[in-house]
Structure formats: structure tokens, C-alpha cells
Design brief:
- It is a single chain.
- It contains four helices and eleven strands.
- By secondary structure, it is of the alpha+beta class.
- The chain has a domain at 128-231: Immunoglobulin-like, CATH 2.60.40.
- Strands 4, 5, 9, 10 and 11 form a five-stranded antiparallel beta sheet that branches. A three-stranded antiparallel beta sheet has the order 1-2-3. It has a three-stranded antiparallel beta sheet with strand order 6-7-8, with no helix packed on it.
- Helix 1 (19-37) crosses helix 2 (66-73).
- It is elongated, with a radius of gyration of 26 Å.
- It starts with 18 loop residues before the first helix and ends with a helix.
- Residues 104-117 have low confidence and may be disordered.
């Protein structure tokens, strides 16, 4: 009698696969099936960092392998962000750089946007930067001025910035750093740089918050002022009124 393929036999045959082995085999089959139909090189949100992990630039998530990234692209979070990006591109009238046609979302239950060809640029390092603490002479608001140098940047590319909360980043424990937020500045082919600043509301009124990119010197300037607390405004107004009476 042949006992080789019988579960639990001791004559060379393996036993019944456990839950972890079955789940790993299922993920591998789904990964191979997805790679046959999806080209990751044409996904504009697919990025492999210097640690060997895979990142989704749309959702700001990190994945240990391409199979995990493919599973993420079919999830609700990624599909929702794709629908929001497609709606914004359609509202702003953006066009595909290759076909020249307007970028619109694909009709369907998922509402995914059209995939653009991703530029494969080699990162050449981080830009030089200088940070200066400033204070408004009238309102006495504290702030920061950032100056970044991009000597090798392309003439058609301008740096961009973005503010990120502690709960969006994946480097530190967000529960221990709720008092901080992050300022990200990116410009290809340089690596994106992040600055850890106080988690205070930023005054975005004209003259309080501004950015400037000097194409002649390839320098990017960003200045921000934090909104003053109620106690600080009261102290300043009280001090100003005493000076007026004197």
C-alpha cells in the first residue's frame, strides 16, 4: 500500500499544509498573476527606496515586497486616493504628456485614474539647505525661513513643498511626536528632504507665508510664521498699549 501521499505519513510525504504555508502560497500565486497583467514600471506611484522596500507615493505607505504593493493597489485606501486624484486632475484640466488628451478617471466601481508613464530618474543626492529662525517685528510671531540649493536641477522643474502630520509619516512613532509636523520639499533628480517643525497652526495670510524659486541661482526659498497663541497676543497688545500711553 502506498503511504506517500497520505496526510501524516512518515514515509517521505509532507503533512497537511498549515495556515501560514497556505496563505503564503496564495499570496505568491496572486502576485505572479498580477505581474502578468500589471507593469509596475508604468505605475507613477510605484517607488523603490534605498532600503529595498517599495513605497506608494500616492498613499505614502511602505511595503516589504512587490506583492504587498500590488495587494495595496487593490485596497480601498489606494482606490479612494486614485479617485480623488482623478477628480482633481479633471477639475484642473490636466493633460497626459504623451497623448495630449485630458486625464480622466476610468469609469467603473473602483474609479481608478489613467496611469501615466513614470520617469526613471536616478537620484543624485540631497540638496544643500539653510534654516533661519525669524520673528515678525510687528506681530512678534515666530517663524522659520528655509533656503535650499538645487544646482543640478532641470530648467523645466521647480521644487514643491508639502506639510505632513506625524500620523502620516512612517519613520517615527506618531504617538510620541504629536507635538511635531513635517515639511517636505521635493525636486527631481534630488532626493526629497523633510524638516521636523513644531505642530502649530501656520499663518497662511499674504506676507506671512510665501515661497520663491530663483531660476538664476537655482535656490528655493520658503518662509512660514506660526500663529501666535491667545496669551502671547494679549501680552503683546498690553505692552503696545503701555508704550502708546508713555
Amino acid at each position: 500500500m502506498d503511504y506517500q501521499n497520505r496526510a501524516g505519513s512518515k514515509k517521505g510525504g509532507g503533512g497537511v499544509a498549515g495556515w501560514s504555508e497556505t496563505n503564503a502560497d496564495r499570496r505568491e500565486r496572486l502576485r505572479k498573476l498580477a505581474l502578468e497583467t500589471i507593469d509596475l514600471e508604468k505605475d507613477p506611484y510605484f517607488f523603490k527606496n534605498h532600503l529595498g522596500s517599495f513605497e506608494c507615493k500616492l498613499c505614502l505607505t511602505v511595503h516589504i515586497n512587490d506583492g504587498s504593493y500590488l495587494a495595496h493597489t487593490q485596497g480601498r485606501k489606494h482606490q479612494t486616493n486614485l479617485a480623488r486624484r482623478a477628480a482633481r486632475d479633471q477639475r484642473e484640466g490636466r493633460t497626459d504628456p504623451i497623448t495630449g488628451l485630458p486625464i480622466t478617471g476610468v469609469s467603473g466601481a473602483l474609479g481608478a485614474s489613467a496611469i501615466q508613464v513614470r520617469k526613471n530618474l536616478v537620484k543624485i543626492g540631497r540638496p544643500g539647505y539653510r534654516i533661519t529662525k525669524i520673528r515678525d517685528p510687528i506681530s512678534r510671531q515666530e517663524g522659520l525661513r528655509f533656503q535650499l540649493q538645487y544646482p543640478e536641477i532641470d530648467t523645466e522643474i521647480a521644487p514643491r513643498h508639502r506639510f505632513m502630520s506625524a500620523f502620516e509619516q512612517r519613520i517615527e512613532n506618531a504617538m510620541d511626536n504629536k507635538q511635531f509636523q513635517y515639511l517636505l520639499v521635493a525636486a527631481e533628480p534630488y532626493e526629497a528632504v523633510g524638516f521636523k517643525i513644531q505642530n502649530k497652526e501656520i499663518d497662511r495670510r499674504p506676507g506671512k507665508f510665501w515661497t520663491h524659486y530663483d531660476k538664476d541661482t537655482n535656490e528655493y526659498f520658503l518662509q512660514l510664521l506660526f500663529k501666535a497663541d491667545k496669551d502671547e497676543r494679549c501680552k503683546y497688545l498690553e505692552c503696545f498699549s503701555k508704550r502708546q500711553h508713555c
